[in-house]
Amino acid sequence: MNDYQPSTDDMLFLLSRVLKTEDHLRALPAYSEVDAELMRQVVEEAGKFVAAVVAPLNRSGDEIGARFSAGEVTMPPGFRDAYQSFWQSGWPALAAAPEDGGQGLPAVLEAMLYEMLSAANHGWTMAPGLLHGAYECIKHHAADALKERYLEKLATGEWLATMCLTEPQAGSDLGLARTKALPQADGSYQLDGTKIFISGGEHDMTDNIVHLVLARLPDAPPGPKGLSLFLAPKFMPDGARNAVHCERIEEKMGLHGSPTCVIRFDQATAWIIGEPGRGLNAMFVMMNAARLHVALQGIGLLDAAWQKADAYSRERRQMRAPGRAKSVAEADLISEHPAMRRILDTQRAWIDAGRVLAYRTALELDLAKYHPEAARRDAAQRWCSLVTPVLKAAFTQQAFYGGSECLQVFGGHGYVREWGIEQNVRDARVAMIYEGTNEIQAIDFLVRKVLPDGGQALALWLDALRADLDAARPNEARVLDRLAALEVHTGQLLRAAAHDNTLAHWVADDYLRAVALVLLDWAWAQIGRAAAPAMPRWSVPAQALERWVMPELTMRFAIIAAAVEQVPLVENAS
Questions:
Q1: 118/206 Cα distance (integer angstroms)
Q2: Same domain, 278 and 415
Q3: Overall pTM surpassing 0.70 (yes/no)
Q4: Is 167 known to be catalytic?
Q5: Residue 434: inside a domain
Q6: Is residue 341 in a domain?
Q7: DSSP SS3 for 199
Q8: pLDDT per residue as tens digits for the range 83-114
């Protein structure tokens, strides 16, 4: 099938007409010169680069894959040249500060770029995917000497970075990490230990790789509070090779173009980032940025799968579709069959809403940094804290299951490699796992962000969502009703969880899914205001959302209510 083509017209419509991004940016002095025309030019040029340079490498990257030999990794043909063109053209530096070699543009433009990159070639995009998070981590936590040496290289993308957390015995429970850091007389440290599942831990795309590593000092207490963060480059400032060894790369279900490495630190030289024992605090800057990027991966991968399925459905002819087709010539296209239309329109509803929510979240990141009013900064931070885990979990799940639905459009042809859709499904599966599994995202959302303050932050956030709705509009009145129902179920859950500390863990996935569905509904209400009712491009997926997606909300509420009813409340006990 044809390579992915970025949907820049749709993306710009959502950015400008739906989110009214220019109006928000005017309140931020840092972006006083960013207008609609500049954003349009950036997005369109990004789309051209992605389509011409990155997308054509997707198939060969999967089939040839990264190759390991004697500690070295050779990337698939064309990957290095494409990356060199990428960073030299300034794309990794979009949102980095000008004083660090960046372009100082809004985070939402970077988000749109990475959505396109993920859709075009997920394996290739894994390499620069952690760049901005690593840049932010070093900028806010590293000593000046480290910033001087590494910050610009990462801001521009001349060098790539990794995030070394996981160990064989320590997956999501980072407190079990054993990698040791021994202080040296010159102020450096020696790292000893092994990290696994390190994306891009070794490759030939850049001249150096900057590893950010969680490790434990000799006197560190056990558990996560004993972890510190260190920077260990592949090559030292004098050009010597550091004692960082790639022992192997994993044989994976998908993402063959991205080397997932086992990395051994054998008295490797490193420097501490931030304060001893506060490594997770510094690392979370990187992880939170990565989670929004993973949500964007989900949206991009789903769009790529949808594009393939939609194109195939407009070419493949089978029996005559039931009902009235547009013309005799179209009567036997499978795009006219209700079962196929339901699949395609439903995935389109998810993609469009996902863009609204992800772009809004990226915009809120800048508002949290730069808005002159403290109350607005707090509201932006609240949005990012609550929405990011929901987007990561919901849209990576939809990328896999929705991509599988898109494969169904092909019938048996979807199951063979010729058409490329099976690669979408394989590549998408890992996004439900890395950067915190979707189950951990749900627990983080409910147990750590909703319950501790009795739902106060959530209530403020729901009020902000309501402020963007008009009860006089029937479709928006439905969203208001669903927000009210969510608030009722949240209150019941809060009261019951006070008497059963396992309850929230049992229903966290259902609760996050319910919130995601309400957010989809809210996003489509925003689209509905900007799009003319008679425009099929927007009205058809809006109808699909209401018919085929939103009924799930009733089921999720029912699961939560049933679980709550099983908890004997103290105040009701005789």
A1: 20
A2: no
A3: yes
A4: no
A5: yes
A6: yes
A7: strand
A8: 999 999 999 999 999 999 999 999 999 999 99
